[in-house]
Amino acid sequence: MTEIERKLDSNGIRPTAMRILIYKYMAEKNNALALTDVEQAFQKAERTTLYRTIKTFEEKGIVHQIDDGTGVLKYALCEPGCNCEIDRDLHLHFHCNSCDKTICLTQHKIPHINLPEGFMAEDANLVVKGICDSCSAY
Amino acid sequence: MTEIERKLDSNGIRPTAMRILIYKYMAEKNNALALTDVEQAFQKAERTTLYRTIKTFEEKGIVHQIDDGTGVLKYALCEPGCNCEIDRDLHLHFHCNSCDKTICLTQHKIPHINLPEGFMAEDANLVVKGICDSCSAY
DNA sequence: TATTAATTGCACTTCTGTTGCATTGCTTAT
DNA sequence: ATAAGCAATGCAACAGAAGTGCAATTAATA
Ligand SMILES: [Mn+2]
Ligand SMILES: [Mn+2]
Ligand SMILES: [Zn+2]
Ligand SMILES: [Zn+2]
């Protein structure tokens, strides 16, 4: 039983061949992925299977969904210490206007926001857009 | 020439009947609207006309688009003092999980975020979700 | 009034996300 | 080992939102 299989198994996800492949793929990318990205990588696989696999990962708390404002949902593996499952891990996301990649800035938490009287916060989403480190290196 | 006509005109928008109606409608709502909301309000009008009207408003800088994470784009009139046209007005948006309305918190600017080495911010979007003042009043 | 430009209406397309259902594969109890 | 039962996959189709092309109107201007 490999590392990944154990990870899936311990989160109540049956480690099928497809799931292991998708997990591995997501793990080796350091940016968030759209369903179409995964589709590109596994052209022989069914879109629905990929979709449901990612959704399963999400439900089981090993992947979180990101709305980066591009109109396409992105997904990224939860880093160790990410508490998505519990009450939302409020780290911020960065979208590069140059390379179009979306990156989890896991270390950067969303600052506390004080709201007007009567408003109660339950969740928050902060996306910063600009130029990423790779793109600004040139 | 009415107030609204002047407003449109001074922003380079020809004040047609339809445009005046839509502007008025958006002005009397205090929450952000989806295209479908406007569609509901003007059932006899063509969707495309409504769509293009809002897009025109946006291009001319009197409306801004909001991605509140629901998957449906929202639009709201720019308040006096909103500098969308210039470099983005970084106020935050609140989405109520109860009444499903999205509100501009024009007074609440997005706090400065310091990013890791190499990252350069150009824009930011912060959406807080929770219970709005009207809903929490009960 | 004739010419030109902007606006609107209608039809149709694309893209993303999502579901229903039959089929296949895996697990477990007999 | 076999059969029953449940989970995963493949295939088809749908829904909603956003957007485009083009013809028909309507408004502005010469
Ligand atoms: Mn993330
Ligand atoms: Mn706003
Ligand atoms: Zn980049
Ligand atoms: Zn509310």
Describe the protein:
Chains A, B: This is Fur family ferric uptake transcriptional regulator. Chains A, B: Pfam families: FUR. Chains A, B: GO terms for molecular function: DNA-binding transcription factor activity; transcription cis-regulatory region binding; zinc ion binding. Two copies of one chain form a homodimer. The first copy, chain A, has a single domain, classed as Orthogonal Bundle (Arc Repressor Mutant, subunit A), CATH 1.10.10.10. Chain A contains six helices and six strands; from the N terminus they run ααβααββαβββα. Chain A has helices at 3-10, 17-28, 35-41, 47-59, 84-87, 133-136, and strands spanning 33-34, 63-67, 73-77, 91-96, 102-109, 120-131. A three-stranded antiparallel β-sheet of chain A has the order 1-3-2. The mean pLDDT of chain A is 93. Chains A and B meet through strand 5, strand 6 and helix 6 of A and strand 5, strand 6 and helix 6 of B. Strand 6 of chain A pairs antiparallel with strand 6 (120-131) of chain B, so a sheet runs across the interface. Bound molecules: manganese (II) ion (2 copies) and zinc ion (ZN) (2 copies). One manganese (II) ion binds at residues 64, 66, 76, 91, 93, 104 of chain A. Residues 64, 66, 76, 91, 93, 104 of chain A line the site of one manganese (II) ion. The structure holds a DNA duplex (30 and 30 nucleotides).
